[in-house]
Structures are given as structure tokens and as C-alpha cells.
Amino acid sequence: MKLPTCWSCSYGFKWSELLIVMDGRKQCPHCSSKQYFTAHSIFKSSVVAVPLVFIPFILKLLNTSWTMMIFIAFLLLMIYIVCLPFLYEFTNEQQHFFK
Ligand SMILES: [Zn+2]
Fold this sequence. Notes:
Elements: E1 25-27, E2 34-37, H1 39-61, H2 66-83, E3 90-91
Antiparallel strand pairs: 1-2, 2-3
The structure holds zinc ion.
Transmembrane segments: 42-62, 68-88
Protein name: Cxxc_20_cxxc protein
Organism: Salipaludibacillus neizhouensis
């Protein structure tokens, strides 16, 4: 897994710079060009989130207690947020996942 680079100047983004991305775009701190998510990176980050939706149901089937379920859900959410910047790819124009 590697972090994305700027489409314009190939600046390698730091993980901490990618934790907060507003409105699906980011500005390069090196050359100030706008970075938009590629449709592929939107797809990847969505696909990774799909199994997270089913985890509470699986835990319920396994008779896990509510406190344990909340703990596991919180833990998985944190792992997802930590891994998310590695799934990003940037391009120079806004791409829409659904056209
Ligand atoms: Zn740049």
C-alpha cells in the first residue's frame, strides 16, 4: 500500500494530510493544484466499506454482547479511517462514479 501523489508535480502526500478531505477534493501543498478523486479510488473505498455494514449482523449471530459489538464496530471503523488514505488516487478533473 502506498499513499497517492499529486497528478501535477508528483508530490507524495503524507498520511496525516489525507485524513481530512473535504468535498472530494484536496489541494497539493507543494504546487497548489486541485486534486480530485479518481472514479477508481471512489470505487475502491466504497467496496472496502461494504463488509463493515454486515459485521454487526454477523456479531449478532455469534451472540456477541452489545458492548463488545460497539467496541468491535468502533475498532473496525478506526482501521477503515486509518487505511482510507492508502486507497486514494488523484486526478486533475472531477470524475463521477455514476455517470
Ligand atoms: Zn502538486
